[in-house]
Amino acid sequence: MRTYGVVLAGGVGVRTGLTIPKQMVKVAGKPVLEHTVAALTASPLVDEVIVMITPGWAERVATLLGDRYPKVSLILEGGATRNETTRRFLDAIDADEAKILLHDGVRPLVDDEILAECVTALDTYDAVDVVIPSSDTIVEVDEADLIRSIPNRSRLRRGQTPQAFKLSVLRDAYRRATQDPGFSATDDCGVILKYRPDVPIKCVMGSDNNIKITQSVDFFIADKLFQLSASAAPGRTPEELAARLAGKVIVVLGGSYGIGAEIAQAAKTAGAVVVAHGRSTTGLHVQDPDQIRAALQKVNEAYGRIDAVVLTAGVLRLGALAETPDEDIDESIQVNYVAAVKVAKAAYPYLKASHGHLLLFTSSSYTRGRENYALYSSSKAAVVNLTQALSEEWAPDGVKVNVVNPERTATPMRLRAFGSEPAGSLLSADKVAEASLRVMASGVTGLVIDVRRSSAGGSARND
């Protein structure tokens, strides 16, 4: 039986106060809608995807998605109500029977496990809802906002999506509903419950991460959750990393020692082809655009492609700005920020051809400038902004851009700046390398990847 994923994206974002539909707002480098479509099309159990979009936006959505999601068969304008939107896609499906997954376009964090649970449950049931337990006490109030009852929350669930149905059952429920002059519903399981009460509705477990973007703050929450998803991205074990990175051509700039050297070694161990450059090993200066272009061109000529470019080079000079020599100011800005711009520009054509990955590095000081860190902190903040901007610019070309934000790490650069520090107080460079490889093995983009001692291999967030 064929399975259709239907993305319900007909909202206009009134509660968020936006001038465009909330599903078109970018989060973690992509519009919310594209994240949702990507999640459904990535499921091996979904055969075809239909997108129901806000009237007037169908052409722009078609341009956005392009031909990168071949499972998307139809992009249709939704109706004035949820009921009308449902009837439109029911009429558009040319089949007597199928499995239907109805999913909110503004729930971009649905995972494959939830989708699989829904599809599997339809082998036994004709209607399925995704729910999670209620962690809050729910109260029922009257017209005067006085509490009438407090239901036992152990029996209460919060509804999410997808909602899944056999096509024939959903069609029949809507056929009956249209005969009811008072029919109105915002929930398709509610339609089944009212007009086909004979049909049991099976509940499967959802996820706290499967949030619906409704209010403005939800965009920030979704950003954070996408960051965290990077730490759970495929490729956590050495075997999975090897499967994803084997044969990939990775260029590491700043690979003489420290984090860069660890990334180069870890990538080689995973089976990647690695070319590492550094000022003290190959004489490459990352702030020199001619040297960068020549180095990348040589790699491309030798191997026919470049799948990832990693820039770890940095310089840390402490001291008050007013007392810093001009040559040190220039070097700090050139190495810590301008180099990232020049490397990105030089790497772009190669990464566009391979749908590859640009991985940059920042510092925890980027969130707030620190005394005697003015140049370093401000440059690293600029790198974060560069990452977020490029992730949006390059997303249509399939190029991923992320930035790693390691906690204080035991590197030669830090040793020179701060001297010896207590054992166990610093993150090891190999842990940063491990987290970096996991990011390169994933499909995430536009993220600030936090790497902390307290988390095995790192976590992630977005600012």
Quote the average pLDDT: 88
| Principal-axis shape | elongated
Gyration radius over CA: 26 Å
> Can you count the beta strands?
17
Structural class: alpha/beta
Largest sheet report:
7 strands, mixed
Helix content: 25-40%
**What topology, given as strand order, has the largest sheet?**
5-4-1-6-10-7-11
Proportion in β-strands: 15-25%
**How many angstroms separate the termini?**
43 Å
Query: Total number of helical segments?
Result: 14
Poorly predicted runs of 5 or more residues: 231-235, 455-463
Layout of strands and helices, then pairs:
Layout: E1 3-9, E2 26-27, E3 30-31, H1 32-42, E4 48-53, H2 58-65, E5 72-77, H3 82-92, E6 99-104, H4 112-121, E7 127-133, E8 140-141, E9 147-149, E10 157-166, H5 167-177, H6 188-195, E11 201-205, H7 216-231, H8 238-245, E12 249-253, H9 258-269, E13 273-277, H10 289-303, E14 308-311, H11 326-354, E15 357-361, H12 374-394, E16 400-406, H13 412-418, H14 429-440, E17 448-451
Parallel strand pairs: 1-4, 1-6, 4-5, 7-11, 12-13, 12-14, 14-15, 15-16, 16-17
Antiparallel strand pairs: 2-3, 6-10, 7-10, 8-9
Helix pairs in contact: 5-6, 9-14, 10-11, 11-12
